[in-house]
Amino acid sequence: MTNYYKVLGIEDNSVSAEIIEEKYLLIKKMILSKIDLGEENSLELIKKLEQIEIAHETLSNPTKKKNYDIANKLIRENSNLINRDNQHYLKIIEESKKKNEKKETSNKELEDPIKQKNYYLINKLKIENNGLFKKLNSENTRNISDSKKFNNEEKVVNEKSSSQENGKRSIFWVIVFLVIGILIFLAFFEANKENLYQPTTATITQVTRKTPTISIVEDKSNLLRTANSFAEYLEQGSANAIILLDTDGDYYKENIEAIKVISHDTLKFGEYIRIYDLSISSYSDYMGTVSGYFENRSFYGWTKYYIDIYLSKVNNTWYIYGWNTKKT
Predict the structure, then answer these.
(1) How many domains does the chain have?
(2) Are residues 248 and 309 in the same domain?
């Protein structure tokens, strides 16, 4: 089964439809340019183009993509099970071969009467030695268990005696510290007896702290300025647009990949991007939206979109959270 994600140059199957569309257009553009220049075999490039079209048709449709992912997962699981079963059967076959070889060698040796007699004598000696070893092992285990019991009893006695001694020492030192504390308190009380009954006066001063505040007009201008600088970076095909991204945002990695694709297409293929008529469409203390128009001109044609740029504020500084485009 062909891996449609590898055909489109995608590593993760949880990517969005927009990234699939961008990858599809990028690879298709590269193959068409190779066909025009005649760099490789045209038949192979046409086959690759057909595979890309099939992969794009499958992955761009949500139902087809879901069915493809399920089928791919089942194939992987079944292949793993088949490999495990094959390994198990190979082990069983090897073990049976080894057993048969041992039986054949033993049967050949027993054909000779002298070897047969020696074989039975050796087995008899092994049985007798095993009985002696078992007796010795049982006696050793008994001796070891008896020594362990004796050691445990000694440990219990020593622990009891040490705990009693520690308890006596701790009680002694507690009494000593109590006596010292009482003597120190009595000496302090006698020394400060007169000062204890004198009233004291204290003045309370209020401290006011000023926190830096930004007016709404200034905050909105910062919001619009950030969106305009982000649009300028995209038009120039500059990777500096990544600096303005919100690193804590949910779509930070996807935004980086999208900026890289835009800058690559702008610098290599000469695509022209224009973002204009930006204005604030929604505003709050921590989030804002700037809307306008997005034009993309390439050899495929000229397209115009509505663009919404979403921004989030961190420490009185606006960052790009994400953006969305719709056809006009």
Answers:
(1) 3
(2) yes
How many residues are there in the chain?
328
CA distances from 188 to 9, 62, 118, 198, 208 (A): 82, 83, 101, 16, 39
Domain containing 42 equals: 4-60
Cα–Cα distances (Å) from 113 to 87, 106, 118, 141, 306, in that order, read 42, 13, 9, 42, 100
Instruction: Summarize pLDDT for 210-256 with one digit per residue, the tens.
Output: 445 689 999 999 999 999 999 999 888 888 899 999 988 888 999 99
In one letter, which amino acid is 160?
Answer: K
Residue 294, domain CATH? 3.10.450.100
Cα–Cα nearest to 293, from 305, 282, 302: 305
What mean pLDDT comes out for the span 49-71? 80
Q: Which residue has the higher pLDDT, 278 or 62?
A: 278
Domain termination residue (choose one: 60, 88, 103): 60
Q: Please state, for a pLDDT cut of 90, what percent of the chain lies above it.
A: 23
* 3-state SS class at 86: helix
Sheet bearing 317-327, strands edge to edge: 272-283, 287-298, 301-314, 317-327
